[in-house]
Design a protein that fits this description.
The chain is mostly helical. It has helices at residues 2-8, 12-36, 53-76, and strands at residues 41-44, 47-50. The protein is elongated.
């Protein structure tokens, strides 16, 4: 059972290689949202908000979650590569 868990687990160096790719893809997705969505407004909590900001907020939360997961992984591995 333990061997199956280790086979499915990703190594720290593999995750470090994938991290910049993930952030770049979030950036590309954000640019696509910005340039393809219209300039309408929607009322949120009684205030008008530009409609394209809503998916950007969602994408930003995914990017933030990715950064936090990487930091947590570094802490779990014992602070390798600059983690203090």
């Amino acid at each position: 059972m333990r061997e199956r868990l280790q086979q499915g687990a990703r190594t720290g160096s593999e995750l470090d290689r994938r991290f910049p790719v993930a952030l770049a893809l979030y950036g590309v997705l954000a640019l696509l949202v910005w340039f393809t969505m219209g300039e309408g407004q929607v009322v949120v909590l009684g205030r008008p908000v530009e409609i394209r900001l809503i998916p950007l907020l969602v994408i930003g939360s995914f990017a933030f979650r990715t950064v936090m997961a990487r930091q947590a992984d570094r802490i779990r591995r014992g602070g390798e590569k600059g983690g203090e």
